[in-house]
Amino acid sequence: MEAITYENINLIKDKLNQAKNIAIVSHENPDGDTIGSAIALALILRKLNKTSYLLINDNMPEFLSWLPSANEYTVYEENPEEVKKVLDTADVLIHVDYNSLSRTGKMEDYLKNFNRFSIMIDHHPSPDNLAVYSFSFPQCSSTAEVLYNFLKLADWTNLIDKNIATAIYVGIITDTGNFTFNSSSPALFHIVAELLEKGIDKDKIYANVFYNFSYDRMKLVGFSLSQRMVFWTEYFTAFIHLYKKDLKQFNHQKGDTENLVNMIFYIRGVKFALLLIEKDGYIKMSLRSRGDFPANYVAKKYFNGGGHLNAAGGKCYASMEDTITKLKKILENDNEIKKHI
Hints:
Layout: E1 2-3, H1 9-18, E2 21-26, H2 32-47, E3 51-56, E4 74-75, H3 80-89, E5 92-96, H4 108-112, E6 117-122, E7 133-136, H5 143-153, H6 162-175, H7 186-197, H8 202-210, H9 215-227, E8 229-232, E9 237-242, H10 244-249, H11 260-263, E10 272-278, E11 283-289, H12 295-302, E12 306-307, E13 311-316, H13 320-333, H14 335-338
Parallel strand pairs: 1-7, 2-3, 2-5, 3-4, 5-6, 6-7, 9-10
Antiparallel strand pairs: 8-9, 10-11, 11-13, 12-13
């Protein structure tokens, strides 16, 4: 896998210009960054008169459905044959916001067999060798920020209109919790300023993303904070743990727990926050931290995951109770973690 640079960007552009069909793939359990980035890229390619297809393993959360072209995704779980057909006929495959095929769900086997030109645009650390060329910057806030820099390198920012800018902005604010983490670079805010110059309505976008709860979702949030949150003051750690029965009680829909882990930081003194959700056979974990507390270290070493310093994900193949017990032992005994408590 070779990095995309100033020296080879024209080769990349030539490959895209020669392509008739381009497949753009988002990761499973999609968030605003993968959806916003993929849509923005698709809209750019269409301005270049390219045929592009948006592919995803499972449906996106309802709070993203208002985005331009969101209804154009082909969902593998609903139409696997169509996804296979697109991948069989695509000249170029673009991986967006993931750096391991394991993040693509049931599409993984099809993607493994793709042997034509491919690109990865991403911001996660330690990428697998899954594309011919990569544009990967873990220091960036989001893949949306990486994508903007890719468009700048390709001299395509003049093609960005209000819809494209809106999609990029959604990617940035969802992956930074509206600029509350992974967002200290002045370069990021220069990009935001340029997006504002494209005419985006940042207040409306914020409302669409963060003020768009269903009644059931709001009740789930209240229940989570009042009944399922634990604060271990001695470890500056707090977590919310939700069982399958809890989700069922509040008619859980995809995206209903989005941003819930970040609410924990409203508590004074919390350095490490986690959301634990019971799934079939494992506990899904979202890990967030402040300062130099290494959330990604905990996820990678103990919970089959990884990510960024302050934002990571993982899985524990145990019961909820055993997962919580394991977490406490880690905080008690891991010397690397104790440095940051």
